[in-house]
Amino acid sequence: MSNEELVPEKDVQPDKIPLTAEEIKEIEEQRERIRNMDMEGDLSEIYKEGPYSEEEKKIAYPFILGRNYFIRTVTYHHTGKLIAATKNELVLTNAAWIADDGRFATALETGEFSEIEPFPKKSHVIVGRNALIDALIHNHPLPTKQK
After folding, report:
1. Is 79 within 8 Å of 90 (Cβ atoms)?
2. Phi and psi at residue 72, to the nearest 5°
3. Chosen CATH of 54-137 out of 2.60.40.1880, 2.30.30.100, 3.30.1310.20, 3.10.20.30
4. CA–CA separation, 82 and 76 (whole Å)
5. What is the pLDDT of residues 63-75, one digit of tens each?
6. Judging by beta carbons within 10 Å of its beta carbon (0-12, 13-18, 19+), is residue 79 exposed, middle or buried?
């Protein structure tokens, strides 16, 4: 990488590796696409629901794109269909915050939870991978009704 490709000093964030001019251009183009999108509409330009490329599957590993998950983070529990994954985030659709799972083993076995707060329909919920405690495939219909 040549010095001309590095971001000017004023743009470098502490503890971050400088970006190349090509990476900066890609980020700016993605930000522009996001700014121009109808935020009430479909985000399929950014997150898709399959089919997935081998590269997308590799980034998502050990998660399986397109499957329903029950995810515990350090503060919350979520259910949802995994539609995208980056190095640092998982993106869920048809997601719900499980405010109270009731008896944990029973909830996992039956898919029945004591308190459910669904996210708005068609929303994409982004969960930080660094906040995960554990996750498992949820072999039940996703909860969609507030309870």
Report:
1. no
2. -105, 130
3. 2.30.30.100
4. 17
5. 888 899 999 999 9
6. buried
**pLDDT tens for each residue of 99-120:** 999 999 999 999 999 999 999 9
Give me the residue spans of the domains in the chain: 3-35, 54-137
| Helix H or strand E segment including 59 | helix 54-60
Tokens describing residue 113: 């939870």
Check residue 17 and give its pLDDT: 59
Residue 18 has pLDDT above 70, yes or no: no
Amino acid identity at 103: R
For CA atoms 134, 79, 122, 57, give the dihedral sign.
positive
